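Appendix B, record 7
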Amino acid sequence: MVMKKFLNDPQRVTNELLEGYALCYPDKIKLVSEKIVVRANPKSTDKVAIVTLGGAGHEPALEGFVGEGMLDASVVGDIFAAPGAPKVVEALRLFKDHKGIVLVVLNHEGDQRNANMALMMAAKEGLNVKKIVTAEDIAPGVDAPASERRGLGGCIPLIKILGAAAEKGLDADAIIELGERFNKRMATLAVTLKVATHPQAGQEIGALGDDQMEIGMGQHGEGGGNGPELMRSADWVAETMAKKLIRAIDGKEGEKVALIINGSGATTLMEMFVVFRKAYEVVTGAGLNVVASKCAEILTVQEAAGFQMFMGVFDDETLALYNAPSDTPYWIVR
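Structure tokens (predicted):
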């Protein structure tokens, strides 16, 4: 197939996108050692650093959330591929004098393998690093163990909470405790209408017919459990997904929740708002209070069409942290 993308050498696309990103937001971030994105204005060393890793091709995730109140660094791998452990350790060393380091890892095989290897290498160097893993995709089943669930866009609201807690000066153990409190009661479910194209290989990732969709398909074209089905209306999809997510977070009447529709790359805001409208109706109809909401592209998959629906339960402390100031290229709170 002919791939229609504005690229130069596909093998250099990660380097070039990061170079362009650093040139676009020089007041917020800078590029170190080709593939490590850090804050342009570092926080003081008496605070814990928040670091993450992940493949390119999902912009603005993850490097788009480096900045005040969120990430101190994002280590970027090649397209849809985790960065190697040596590069992760190189990033961790940048924060060796900080109060501690929290490493956020999405539950994908490559990310976990390289993160765990990096943690072993860091420990030998005496670096104080603690790990938190996001695994909120409920496609394998609402009751599936975390080890079987993928990390999706829910990592970003979690990072918002972790970053705000670090800005307050909390130590790594307290930050992890707050993060796990939210982590345990957040869930994401995706639906795909059209699969992505790998910008280096030029091949489609997965397959869907013109009249098909798949609820639960992973962000790299992985199967969603029940397989493709015929297209349904926005209301049907939103209601089906929202009900599953409410069950997954064990939502109880009166609780405060976040509701986010994250576009996958080729989904219009028009579609996201139509979906949000019905999801909001289902969530509030179940007695939950939507106190944080967003329709935007947060974690994308090139030109994949579809969206991820996210829900998370707040307590007063995590809600205050979520609403705390941040200043990153793609998440600003005043």
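Remarks on this record: Helices lie at 13-24, 85-93, 109-124, 155-167, 172-183, 234-248, 269-285, 316-322. DSSP finds eight helices and 14 strands in the chain.
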